[in-house]
């Protein structure tokens, strides 16, 4: 059974800070891990997908790493902006049907 | 390009009334389709997934059912809503195994 945990649950930082969001998973036999962003009352927006053969994936100011052996992934946000305020979710697949198991998320607030 | 449509965006229904939420995907064939629910203050819970027409797997025993009458159409239903069915319902799709998942904008269901 796959369990996904995210730390911290909430984070409030001033604009400009570099941030690290953590995600841990119990079943390391995953073939990818995905990070999402969710704005209040909205659906999920895919940010990054890291395949098991990769160790990092980058998109703009976002960088995600994956360490299967330790069951961890981190999302690094460089030079945070107020527009980054949202809930960030990581998800690991379970089974051949790609059933995504989600963490409970990190609620990020970046203030000016 | 692929898009996912989910409607309605919001819904207020009385207890005991029926429910039908619809999700359609455009621009791809034979996708995996998923229904998730996000209750207030809780993480995303997988309700149903489908790997093909007429193939539905249920993850959680509940008052809901799902159907996939066409390749790119996924419907979530209930014959009689309960107060506990209130929540944010999200439809998602992926192209078979080991690929990125994409979500719709969600339906906010309030049962009164």
pLDDT averaged over residues of chain B? 92
Order of helices and strands of chain A: EEEEEEEEEEE
Largest sheet of chain A: 6 strands, mixed
Overall number of strands of chain A: 11
* Residues in helix, % of chain B: under 10%
- Uncertain segments of chain B are none
Task: Determine the number of helices of chain A (DSSP H or I, runs of at least 4 residues).
Answer: 0
Portion of residues within helices of chain A: under 10%
Instruction: Round the mean pLDDT of chain A to the nearest integer and report it.
Output: 92
Greatest interface: A-B, 25 and 28 residues
* Poorly predicted ranges of chain A: none
Q: Indicate the structural class of chain B.
A: mainly beta
Shape of chain B: globular
Assembly context of the chains: heterodimer
What is this entry, summarized?
The complex is a heterodimer of chains A (112) and B (112). In chain A, 0% of the residues lie in helices and 59% in strands.
Describe this structure in words.
- The complex is a heterodimer of chains A (112) and B (112).
- Chain A has strands at 4-7, 10-14, 19-25, 32-38, 44-51, 56-59, 62-67, 72-77, 86-94, 99-102, 106-111.
- In chain A, a hairpin with a 4-residue loop joins strand 9 (86-94) and strand 10.
- Chain A is globular and about 45 Å long.
- With 112 residues, chain A is an all-beta fold.
- In chain A, strands 2, 4, 5, 9, 10 and 11 form a 6-stranded mixed beta sheet that branches.
- With 112 residues, chain B is mainly beta.
- In chain B, 0% of the residues lie in helices and 58% in strands.
- Chain B has no helices and 11 strands.
- Chain B has strands spanning 3-7, 10-13, 19-26, 32-38, 44-52, 55-58, 65-70, 73-78, 87-94, 101-103, 107-111.
Q: Which keywords apply here?
A:
heterodimer; A: 112 residues; mainly beta; six-stranded mixed β-sheet; five-stranded antiparallel β-sheet; 59% strand; B: 112 residues; seven-stranded mixed β-sheet; four-stranded antiparallel β-sheet; 58% strand; globular
């Amino acid at each position: 059974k796959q369990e996904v945990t995210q730390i911290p649950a909430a984070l409030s930082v001033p604009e400009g800070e570099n941030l690290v969001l953590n995600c841990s998973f119990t079943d390391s036999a995953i073939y990818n891990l995905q990070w999402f962003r969710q704005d209040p009352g909205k659906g999920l927006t895919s940010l990054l997908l890291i395949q098991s053969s990769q160790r990092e994936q980058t998109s703009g100011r976002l960088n995600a790493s994956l360490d299967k052996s330790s069951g961890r992934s981190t999302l690094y946000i460089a030079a945070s902006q107020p527009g980054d305020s949202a809930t960030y979710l990581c998800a690991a697949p379970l089974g051949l049907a790609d059933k995504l198991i989600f963490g409970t998320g990190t609620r990020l607030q970046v203030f000016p | 390009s692929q898009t996912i449509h989910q409607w309605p965006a919001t819904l207020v229904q009385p207890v005991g009334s029926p429910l039908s939420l619809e999700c359609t995907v455009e621009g791809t064939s034979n996708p995996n389709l998923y229904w998730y629910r996000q209750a207030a203050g809780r993480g995303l819970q997988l309700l149903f997934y489908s790997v093909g027409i007429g193939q539905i797997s249920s993850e959680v025993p509940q008052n809901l059912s799902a159907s996939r009458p066409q390749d790119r159409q996924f419907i979530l239903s209930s014959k009689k809503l309960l107060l506990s069915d209130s929540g944010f319902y999200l439809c998602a799709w992926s192209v078979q195994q080991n690929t990125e998942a994409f979500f719709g904008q969600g339906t906010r269901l309030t049962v009164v």
